[in-house]
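Figure S7 source data.
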Amino acid sequence: MDRKIAVVTGANRGIGFEICRQLAAKGISVVLTSRDEAKGRMAVAQLRSQGLEIEFYQLDVTDTSGIQRLGGFLERKYGAADILVNNAGIMADAKGTGMLGVQLQIIRTTMETNVYGPLILCRELIPLMRKKNYGRIVNISSGLGQLSEMGGGTPAYRMSKTALNALTRTLAAELKGTNILVNSVCPGWVKTDMGGPNAVKTLAEGADTAVWLATLPDGGASGGFYRDRKAISW
Ligand code: NAP
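Tokens for the predicted NAP complex:
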């Protein structure tokens, strides 16, 4: 059987960790990546103790040469990268800071992690997907990046998620006619370090739509934005 290979970024905790768990439970070989080696290995050990097939790869998504090394590793070991979940993300805006007050450095750092990292990962892994004409790319976005619902506050984060959605749309258009499907997801407000304790969704609920998009059948949707397995406006 053709066992799929999935790469998930920022997966030592939160939604990324749960996406790894759910993908591995479906029989997919998961490469759990984390910028911190010790935290990543602990996460892998926790999932392996549940009988899941998970391996660790150290990756900071702002490190371009690290992303290239990951591509080389996947090519040598599997000759494939079937699924990419761009999950790693930061919300670095200082509380109460708006568009006129946010430091440019905060915007730059946020874009490096939330947009340029996913872009470089796509550039590195899509050639491997093309070899098998199979790919599922899931960009973990946010309702805060929806132009149709745009409000004030968290400006760096909002701009980064809108840009990530543009990456989804543009790539999906450029890959039209292939079996490489690219979609964005808003996980909802999820109980994680980022979402905080008052969030309304469990980790399992927050990961569900991303896992659904990561395992779409051939001919499935591409270039969409989803929450709770339903299309939402951009
Ligand atoms: P989280 O608990 O804060 O986890 C974020 C993860 O990203 C951590 O593993 C963190 O690693 C990793 N990360 C940050 N910068 C990185 C980098 N440069 N390289 C590699 N990994 C990096 O957040 P979460 O709630 O699970 O969020 C996951 C995704 O969902 C994010 O893209 C977020 O924007 C999105 N989202 C979350 C919510 C929510 O309510 N929670 C809502 C909408 C969208 P460290 O442990 O090393 O910091």
